[in-house]
Design goal:
The structure is a homodimer. In chain A, about 35% of the residues lie in helices and about 25% in strands. Chain A has about 250 residues and is of the alpha+beta class. Chain A folds into 2 domains: about 130 residues, Nucleoside Triphosphate Pyrophosphohydrolase; about 60 residues, Winged helix-like DNA-binding domain superfamily/Winged helix DNA-binding domain (Arc Repressor Mutant, subunit A, Orthogonal Bundle). In chain A, the strands form 2 sheets. In chain A, strands 1, 2, 3, 4, 5, 6 and 7 form a 7-stranded mixed beta sheet that branches. In chain A, a hairpin with a 2-residue loop joins β1 and β2. The longest helix of chain A is centred in the first third of the chain and has 26 residues. The structure holds a DNA duplex (27 and 27 nucleotides).
Amino acid sequence: MSSAEAISGIKKQEDTNNALEQVQQLVETYPRVPITVDCVIFGFDNNELKVLLIRSDLEMFDGKWTLLGDFAHDDEELDDAAYRVLRERTGMRDVYLEQVKTFSKPHRHPGGRVITVAYCSLLNTEHHALNILDNELHWHTVKTACNMAFDHKEILDVCYKWLQKRMLEHPLGLNLLPEKFSLRELQNLYEAILDIKLDRRNFRKKFFSMDFLIDTGEYEDDVHHRPGRLYRFDFDKYSQNKKKWTGIEF
Amino acid sequence: MSSAEAISGIKKQEDTNNALEQVQQLVETYPRVPITVDCVIFGFDNNELKVLLIRSDLEMFDGKWTLLGDFAHDDEELDDAAYRVLRERTGMRDVYLEQVKTFSKPHRHPGGRVITVAYCSLLNTEHHALNILDNELHWHTVKTACNMAFDHKEILDVCYKWLQKRMLEHPLGLNLLPEKFSLRELQNLYEAILDIKLDRRNFRKKFFSMDFLIDTGEYEDDVHHRPGRLYRFDFDKYSQNKKKWTGIEF
DNA sequence: CCAAAAGTGTTGCGGTTACACCCATGA
DNA sequence: TCATGGGTGTAACCGCAACACTTTTGG
């Protein structure tokens, strides 16, 4: 390296430092807002879509229910914050989770401005039951959920609509079922969430033709009638064969 | 009101005040983060999808391009902030705008932690051309856009994918065309954005059968061949007749 | 009269819907 | 043996894809 190059190198380094300081100082001047994540945790039990809520620990929301949420830590990506909330509150890992929408009405939180990012997650209530730590946690039927704090009812509604739409194009709903499930259970799931009736034979044909169901060779054993076959969903195969394009339709 | 009731009323008021203070103090303790909105502004010109970018005014991003963004003001809902950015930068009002996703990687901004909410907007470049105030603003071809600051390339990619998907289920793409347009222009729009070829006759049949196109009775007049009819899109009719359900498909 | 794009119908295929009967199991 | 849901096939219909020629305009 020539000395001219060395000097130019030093100069460049100084410029970089100055530029960095400039940016840091600029960011210092920005208004700051507390950020939370709120998880809409769906479960499926008794042929009903449920949502996991906790009693508000704020005096002014005495008796009201809230979503599971928390502030974002410094240097924590919001996806990670949402996973952390799930872990801390339910003890579960590896749960399906997706960002849905950010809510920012100035007065949505009575304590001052707080922006929240809503996440939607789906888990199997049977697995989950073992891990609930906090007895102020309860599963509520989504359709009748009410008396909620903040704008959490609105967030729930948005996430429910999101789920209904997403179910049609993605098999995320299977996260609500046990690993092995009967076709009846699967159909009940779709019927309950979408709030429609489906023809049993056509539903079967549809799922079999997608060819993502693996026959376990096992049967239901807790049923008071002819037991149905149990299937697993082939998530690997799905992720290689997703549909790309379904045509213009509105 | 009895004096007991009055006392109880005062007590309740005090409780409320206390509770409010409690919540406010709690929110005070939350970590705070600067929030920005970034608008991915799409246009359509020369049969190509374009995106409006501005040169970064930060020294360390010398020569790089960024999305149009700004900090959220105090007490400003983020949707409003995004509309404000659009107004301030392009002079346009009443532009189609939708929240897409929140980006929160801890080091996405070199000046420290900044969380940004990405909005996608679509506007007609002809109308818009008149209003550009800042000559560091430029339309870039989306496919070849590069050399972007921050994580703005990633945001652009996510919004482009979002647009491709959204186009199939919602007529938002029509915001990219002039009010009156030919079917050829409409088809070019879909072909360019979705990056596919479509059969002309089937495309026409499809749109005519949806029955949202209003024949203006007018014709193109700037073409060097047989002029096509001009149509308007009936947004009112659309908003009353949206499809609800398109079947399970994944 | 030539180039360039507008405009227009039909056919075949595949997927969705609608629908009814026999079977296996537990009580 | 009865009640309950499991499991299965077929026919009509509809929407989508594939495909070519004539018409209109400007140059």
